[in-house]
């Protein structure tokens, strides 16, 4: 009987042990599933963060491109406007130089001196325009101001040439 009781006790013990092991295995499976679920969630958050970073970078790039395009367009318009003003001054200077060739005496001497000044100013404007073409950023603003100043000086010298021809 004792043998049977010990066998029953042993069977109960083994049954409990196997049940406990099964329960531990279920706990391990649950823990593994929870860990996998947490890992998947973390990976999803990393993917979302990377996507958000790419989108933010794309927005910054697009904004920078738009700003650069707008600046380039404004620069081109300003250069065109300045070039038109220079071209108009050149046309007037050419017309007046033709009149210098027809002038006589002291008027011609004064007109030729004024024409030389016009040509010197015209070369300064050409140099300033070349600087403006190559300039960017704050240097562009300085070059634009230089072109405007040189153009104003050219116009003033053309007015002086015109005045010398009217005397």
Q: TL;DR?
A:
The chain has three helices and no strands.
Description of the molecule:
The chain has 3 helices and no strands. It is an all-alpha fold and 167 residues long. The protein has one domain (2-166). The longest helix is centred in the N-terminal third of the chain and has 101 residues, at 2-102. The chain is rod-shaped and about 115 Å long. The termini are far apart.
Query: How many domain regions?
Result: 1
Helix content: over 70%
Quaternary structure of the protein: single chain
Number of helices: 3
Cα-atom Rg, whole angstroms?
44 Å
Helix-strand topology string: HHH
Chain-averaged pLDDT: 82
Strand residue percentage? under 5%
Based on DSSP secondary structure assignment, what is the total number of beta strands? Answer: 0
Regions with pLDDT < 50 over 5+ consecutive residues?
16-24
| Morphology call | rod-shaped
Largest sheet: none
Structural class: mainly alpha
Task: List the topology elements.
Elements: H1 2-102, H2 105-134, H3 137-166
Which descriptors apply to this entry?
single chain; 167 residues; mainly alpha; 0% strand; rod-shaped
